Description:
Distance between the termini: 42 Å
CATH class of the largest domain: Alpha Beta
Oligomer: single chain
Helix content: 10-25%
Strand order of the largest sheet: 5-4-3-6-7-8
Amino acid sequence: MKILSLLLFTFLSLYSFQVEIERPNQYTNQDVTGWIMSEKLDGIRGYWNGKEFLSKNGNKIYAPASFTKNFPPFELDGELWTKRNDFSNIQSIVLDKTPSKYWKEISYNIFEAPNAKGNFLERLNKAKDWFKNNPNSQVHIIEQIVCKDKKHLYDYLKKIVLLKGEGVIVKDPNLEYIKTRTNKALKVTMFYDAEGRVEKINYGKNNTMRSLLIKQENNVTFNLGGGFSKDERKNPPSIGDIITFKYYGLTKNKKPRFASFLRIRKEE
Length: 268
């Protein structure tokens, strides 16, 4: 059976995290037999510090009290999410400083209990046990699957992609919660993903945006012209906005190949 080829996921952050959280590295065809894999949800990272939610940049997330009902006094890490392919909606709800009624659409999907004792699954069980005794209908523990071999990983990735999911996370089950990048927790997806700052808007006929000049963290600049809808070309991102784009490898000049616009990324 022909195995679907993988292109790797790379996340290039333009800011240093103020909250020390675990950050997976890219998957580079390592043997992950016996590791634990789960779907990577494309939402807003939510770190529960025992009292309130913080974003990956350490900013307060203004979740309503009804959402955090029965939350524990210990730390949790997870994704604030609604459904696949719904990032813009999630972002508008979660990053609003005035909690709206639409928080009822959000679920908290837990993949870690930082600072709990034990290995990965033992730490996660602490969260499971807590919410078993203190239920909250908007809380879910992300399903974790033991990876049999690389084919099992690839097949699982294909399944997620066909459902319009983002990708897969694989973890060494013996991994401690590491507050840095680690090769023991890896992201796997069908394309690379990165961020850049809009430096200039290039206009074409009828004053419609033709492309954006994007500057990445490594100071590489390139023109991004693909992936925009007609409405986005009429109302393009503004200079200074941080945008997320996907691409398929790099050129010899280190520029993203076949780059395509995904979304404006609001500061979290």
